[in-house]
Amino acid sequence: MKALIQRVTSARVSVSGEEVGRIGNGLVVLVGVAAGDTLKDVEYLVQKNIGLRIFADESGKFNLSVLDIKGELLLVSQFTLIADTKKGKRPSFTGAAPPEEAERLFNEFVKQSKASGLKVETGRFQQYMQVEIHNDGPVTIMLDSREKI
Fold it and tell me: Catalytic positions, please?
């Protein structure tokens, strides 16, 4: 499971021109579910995501997490994070989890994120979305549950 995290001042997601999610200061998290991912991958990435110290303290150092600043989360499913680009010029998505499994694990990611007490908004699973991101910094970090120690 992969999560591409972007620190933002604001963000919103729309489907067919309808806004379905909006946040202020916080994180946009694009989530890709790979074949073989489990609840342990979800738990690891949720905890890493909400605990990652990528917000500046009063000294300007990255010492605060989204929890510390009481920020907001916009979670968007994005199977293209699982793309394999090793061969040719067309990405392969065969490593992505089947849609039913990916949706189940993404929904669990949302549920566990909401348990943190933070405001959580989402896009719509398996829908074509427009995501407007006001990246702050910019700060963008890739997390991969398969790369944990």
Answer: 80
Mean predicted confidence (pLDDT) in 87-114: 96
pLDDT at 20 over 90: yes
29 touches 145 (CB < 8 A): no
The hierarchical CATH code for the domain 2-144 is 3.50.80.10
SS3 content of the chain, % helix, strand, coil (to 5): 25, 40, 35
Of residues 42, 8, 2, the one with CA closest to residue 22: 8
Provide the total of helices (H) and of strands (E) in the chain, helices listed first: 2, 8
pLDDT tens digits for 114-130? 999 999 999 999 999 99
CB 106 within 8 A of CB 76: no
Please tell me the pTM assigned to this model. Answer: 0.95
Cis bond before residue 138 (omega within 30° of 0): yes
Task: Please answer whether residues 33 and 53 qualify as being in contact, where contact means their C-beta atoms are separated by less than 8 angstroms.
Answer: no
